[in-house]
Write a structure and sequence with these properties.
Blueprint (H helix, E strand, L loop, with lengths): L1 E7 L3 E6 L4 H7 L18 E4 L10 H7 L7 E3 L9 E4 L4 H17 L4
Parallel strand pairs: 1-5
Antiparallel strand pairs: 1-2, 3-4, 3-5
């Protein structure tokens, strides 16, 4: 059986087999998710926010321990979370792009007229 994963903010969608990790689904959709450990749950760079109503396989004890409570906030590790149906996740900006976006937002606020 297949499942569908949507990655936000890009809106890219990909059909994958049930049991596929979110990291592998992202690679198939050409969505960049940072990782250093090669998907071994060691670097925590592949944290994703899973949107309500998404269908993922139950979290493993190992992933739950590594997330240390973040799973309660909808955070999952892309290398560990496995698709079980329709899933929507938010991929954070990489740190450099996020810093640039913050700086541009600050500049836009400073450039607004005061009258």
């Amino acid at each position: 059986m297949s499942a569908e994963v949507t990655f936000w903010p890009s809106g890219k969608k990909v059909a994958v087999k049930r049991g596929t990790t979110l990291l592998d689904a992202a690679r198939r959709a050409n969505v960049l998710i940072q990782t250093r450990c090669g998907g071994k749950a060691a670097c925590f760079m592949c944290k994703l926010t899973v949107l309500p109503g998404s269908e993922l396989m139950p979290i493993s004890d190992n992933e739950r321990r590594k997330l240390a409570g973040l799973d309660g906030e909808g955070i999952r590790l892309g290398c560990q979370a496995r698709v079980d149906g329709k899933v929507e996740v938010t991929v954070p900006l990489d740190p450099l792009k996020a810093a640039i976006a913050r700086q541009l937002a600050r500049q836009a606020e400073q450039d607004e007229p005061l009258w």
